[in-house]
Amino acid sequence: MAECIHGFEGGLCDICFPRRDPNEVRPAPARRVPGARVRHAGGRAAGTAVIPTVTLAEQRIFHVTHEHNLPAILTDKALRAGATPAVDVSSATTRELRATVEVVDGSTVADYVPFYLSPDASRWDELRRGADGVHWSDAARATKPLEYVMLVSTAGELGPDVVVTDRDAADSTSRFGIGTDGGAPLIRRLRSEDPEFFEPEILGPSSVPFEAITLIGVPNDRVRDRVKRLLADSGGHAPKVSVFPPWFQPSE
Fold first, then answer.
1. DSSP string across 194-241
2. Are 154 and 56 in contact (CB under 8 A)?
3. Model confidence pLDDT, tens digit, residues 184-210
4. SS3 for 21?
5. Which of 65, 64, 45, 63 has the alpha carbon at shortest distance from 251?
6. Do 39 and 120 contact (CB within 8 A), yes or no?
7. I need a labelling partner for 63 at 20 to 30 A (CA). Which of 100, 140, 200, 243 fits?
8. How many angstroms separate the CA atoms of 148 and 126, rounded?
């Protein structure tokens, strides 16, 4: 079996080893410009998506952070909601919105650690393309995509109180799937409405142990070497570090 370039083992990667219905009629592959990522006006990718048949617990999730924020995460041994990062990419408007949108039992979006469901999520794509708009800080606009890393886990690692949203969690029109029972049906609907998972978020508890991270995706060899040194110096959990440039390239 070929090796997964994303660091997963045993053919578990839905990108390198996509799971298909044996009765599926597969269309001829579309021609693409190498490295290009094409979206329709509505923000969805062109072409026919392959929808992975995985459970909510198996669903991979992605937390993007600036490389300079990693030392504090390793010191805390956790990703913490409300932490003050070394490089804060969120605008004051974004933080205010996330602190006012209620999720459940008086908690707000700001009380959770956010993850994307795709390494190509729309908000992350905005950041890669220059961080224009009200969601991003001046610090974000001063950064480059190659300065970021992606912390990868699965929704099951977040525990039974995971929250699924169908779009930006701070959007007043977002739907919330609370817990495993409420999140699973929403994930199933999203596979029809947004099969590439460009828009939704997964919200984890206020403190997500770093041990829940199974892989760190980085843009190049230099960043990989620096991250590996940080992990070795921390003396704690050391997930695999894999180079995957497409995750850090702006869309066309």
1. -TT--S-EEEE-SEEEGGG--EEEESSHHHHHHHHHHHHHHTS---EE
2. no
3. 999 999 999 999 999 999 999 999 999
4. coil
5. 45
6. no
7. 100
8. 14
Task: Quick: pLDDT tens for 85-102.
Answer: 999 999 999 999 999 999
DSSP letters, 24-67, are --PPPPPP--TT---B-TTSPBSSPPP-----TTT-EEEEEEEG
- 């617990």: which residue's tokens? 57
Dump the DSSP string for 158-197.
G-TT-EEESS-TTSTT--EEEHHHHHHHHHHHHHHH-TT-
Residue 11 tokens read as 């053919």
Question: Does residue 18 register a pLDDT over 70?
Answer: no
End-to-end CA distance of the chain: 32
Distance CA 228, CA 220 (A): 12
The neighbouring-strand residues paired with 241 are 216
Our CA dihedral for 53, 55, 58, 63, rounded to 10 degrees, sits at 90
The closest alpha carbon to 212, from 204, 223, 220, 224, belongs to 204
What CA–CA distance (Å, rounded) separates 210 from 80?
A: 10
Residue 41 pLDDT greater than 50, yes or no: no
pLDDT of residue 172: 85
